[in-house]
Design a protein that fits this description.
The structure is a homodimer of 436-residue chains.
Chain A (H helix, E strand, L loop, with lengths): L24 E6 L5 E2 L14 E5 L6 H9 L31 E3 L1 H7 L5 E5 L9 H14 L4 E5 L3 H13 L2 E7 L4 H8 L4 E5 L3 H12 L7 E3 L5 H6 L2 H10 L7 E5 L4 H15 L9 E7 L4 H8 L24 H11 L2 E5 L1 H15 L5 H15 L9 E5 L7 H4 L7 E3 L3 H7 L5
Parallel strand pairs in A: 5-13, 6-7, 6-9, 7-8, 10-11, 10-13, 11-12
Antiparallel strand pairs in A: 1-2, 1-3, 4-5
Helix pairs in contact in A: 2-12, 3-4, 4-5, 8-9, 9-11, 10-11, 12-13
Chain lengths: 436, 436
């Protein structure tokens, strides 16, 4: 039983909604057929099996007042509570409080790439567990609270497991997360240290996912919120906060161009959704923006489809160092293609050597040590500038979604001391490094 | 030639000061004899070889207006520019912009420790390179700019090297940092990835330090700012920002009790200095506070002296997993003893097993994965509560100065999956984890 065909949990229009307060969220709606369902821990449309997403009744009225209210809010994701599926008092509940990470004006990188219109890196390694996953998990936690779940869970290849474990510990949930049994020890430690139950599954990530889908449909899984399965519609909305923050940090202005990594594709679609909401609410000027997707060549189903002019994404078997992007059958791939084409963007990929080069380029120019996914976006940005698809005279934002400390292996083989010497001045002089 | 006896660089009262703008900083003064010297890249008193520290002409006037100016400032260390040795326009210069990290209300940890008066963790793992070092380096960078240095340098056992490399990259300095040649590969990668020169020294950390002192006195080192040697008086001031942030985040109030890790002891003395400044400026009420120092038993020269009632700190040979605190001959040890005794605090230590337990306790209760230094402070806090030296009915702040990702080895041997199972429900049921 695969995730997209779980028969026990699709929503039904007739189902009674629990009386939940998720702020401006009023319903779930099917992205394919538009049918609406009450808010609940469901993720697939009963009519067409399309993915469900959160529908809102967003605040109307004076945009200036809304801007002021946001600016007076906490220095984290909850400043945008009026635009997210969370109750109004969310900031008073225990949470890792992710978000409002730095938007770094990357002048040295811009000079290297020949970008003159302003280049910014949105650095999500500043989140509590050092990846953007803290954003999406934080929203899923509030949904879990609303639905009365007491255990938080997920299937993960490592990073999400840590984010869920940490968030559950802070928020006072039990956690039980599932990973392939043969992960690297570092990732296992990061997933296990928060003290929840960590279960190694004898199989690969697909086996873990399949097992989780079975567990959701079984009495054994009652009371369990799987952040990336039955809470997925809420979880995904966390990525909208990236759009809000970027616009606010640019002075309530949309970037002209943005480069976003593509794994499942969800993040890219939610950033587009966030930009559109900001325009609809009058919080930013309605100007065109171009969205670019970035993949690693070793797992490039969406960029391959984009370049071939296809609407359908053909699955690939991943083989890349950018493991956090290694989803060979991305659920939101077709939506990514649509957004890239509609906005005048593109989807591009770089090979592993280019990923490593780009990680080092970003570190050397801006002092930001990115995860491999950040190497993908920076590398793709360079490629798109060279190809003339990114206009260097316009404002460009590049996402770094994670921290280099989590993917040290990618750069370790080619990163080391310039010299090793005896502790004396003659040896240092001989090394030729004394020019300042 | 050891650091404390470098003959070529002590300050002289007659020396002409460069015309530098370091904001409210007006001079250096000797902590031992009080003699004052012009601002410059010097660190030892010519008269008594005592350590120099920054003397200020701090803002006078309405505390409410100063509070408001700070609160309207950037969400980083530069909101406190009026109280730090930096020019007023510092926030416009390229910097990693560390600081204003989360002060986490740790209710679950408080419950475990029996603290009822409010327990907070100041989590400095949220800094750009994930330790408090970003604060001190950021201040040293501004001093280097003011003195016209073009190369940033340091001696390091790893973490500082990365912080300097990253800060130099962002700020547009060349960097050349020195480490013992036999560090773990992970630390070498973190130090090297920012693209500056990284020099392995065939010797231990003392050899590296000795070499750096020679280099400062040699024409080869001209134009070089060593953040923890000739820029040390400025560098150290960065730790004052921890005091300011904690007070502001508590609602402009000092904590009753604070637990601070002790390596060289500098951080603890600067937090005390910061608290005293806040009182003198009228920014907080003048109430007593107790400062507690925390060490690892395997490197506990200061807690040993404290318990023995000594004023002198006898050097030790470090042997502990808390490597970032493993300074066997702490320069500020006597000052730490003085502050702990004067404020009614204490200096205590925990063994390596207690450090590991405390790392896990903090992760499990609050979702914060701390470096070993954070295990030391949490472990010492528990010990001090049990001993009755920390009053559980009062507000207590515990510092976490770094990130668990940097010291995975400490917890790896005892942190792993709860169970490993086949991907089916029967196997999961048999594992006995399905209670929610």
């Amino acid at each position: 039983m695969a995730v997209h065909t779980v028969a026990t949990t699709p929503a039904t229009p007739s189902q009674d909604a629990p009386a939940v307060d998720l702020g401006p969220a009023v319903a779930l709606s099917c992205r394919e057929c538009g049918e609406r369902f009450p808010l609940g821990p469901v993720f697939a449309c009963v009519s067409c099996f399309g993915p469900l997403e959160v529908a809102y009744d967003l605040p109307t009225g004076d945009p200036q007042a809304l801007r002021a209210a946001i600016e007076a809010g906490p220095d984290n994701i909850w400043r945008y509570a009026p635009l997210l599926p969370v109750p109004a008092d969310v900031a008073t509940k225990p949470s890792l409080n992710p978000g409002f990470t730095q938007l770094v004006k990357a002048d040295h990188l811009a000079a290297e790439l020949g970008v003159t219109g302003g280049l910014y890196v949105k650095d999500d390694s500043g989140n509590p567990t050092h990846s953007f996953k803290d954003r999406v998990v934080a929203i899923a936690v509030e949904a879990a609270r609303a639905f009365g779940f007491t255990t938080l869970s997920c299937s993960s290849t490592g990073n999400l497991a840590g984010a869920v474990g940490a968030a559950a510990a802070r928020a006072g949930f039990r956690s039980c997360v599932f990973i392939p049994h043969d992960l690297e020890q570092g990732k296992v430690v990061m997933a296990a240290v928060y003290g929840g139950d960590l279960v190694g599954i004898e199989g690969n990530y697909d086996d873990v996912n399949r097992f989780c889908s079975e567990l959701i449909g079984d009495p054994l899984g009652e009371g369990w919120g799987f952040v990336n399965v039955n809470l997925r519609p809420y979880y995904g909305e966390g990525s909208k906060s990236l759009a809000y923050e970027i616009a606010e940090q640019l002075g309530w202005r949309l970037p002209d161009q943005i480069v976003i990594p593509v794994a499942s594709g969800s993040q890219l679609t939610k950033i587009d959704k966030g930009f559109k909401e900001l325009i609809a609410l009058g919080l930013v000027e309605d100007r065109p923006y171009k969205i670019f997707g970035a993949q690693a060549e070793g797992c490039s189903p969406v960029s391959t489809a984009y370049k071939a002019g296809h609407d359908v994404v053909r699955p690939q078997k991943p083989d890349t160092i950018a493991k956090s992007l290694a989803i060979g059958n991305p659920a939101d791939g077709p939506y990514v293609l649509d957004i890239a084409r509609r906005t005048g963007g593109a989807v591009e990929d770089v090979d592993d050597a280019q990923v490593v080069d780009a990680i080092k380029l970003l570190a050397r120019t801006e002092g930001i040590f990115a995860e491999t996914a950040g190497g993908v976006t920076v590398g793709v940005t360079r490629k798109l500038v060279e190809a003339g698809l990114i206009d260097p005279s316009l404002t460009t934002v590049v996402l770094n979604t994670g921290d280099g400390l989590k993917t040290l292996d990618a750069v370790a083989p080619t990163t080391g001391p310039t010299a090793t010497i005896r502790p004396d001045l003659d040896a240092f002089r001989a090394a030729g490094l004394a020019t300042s």
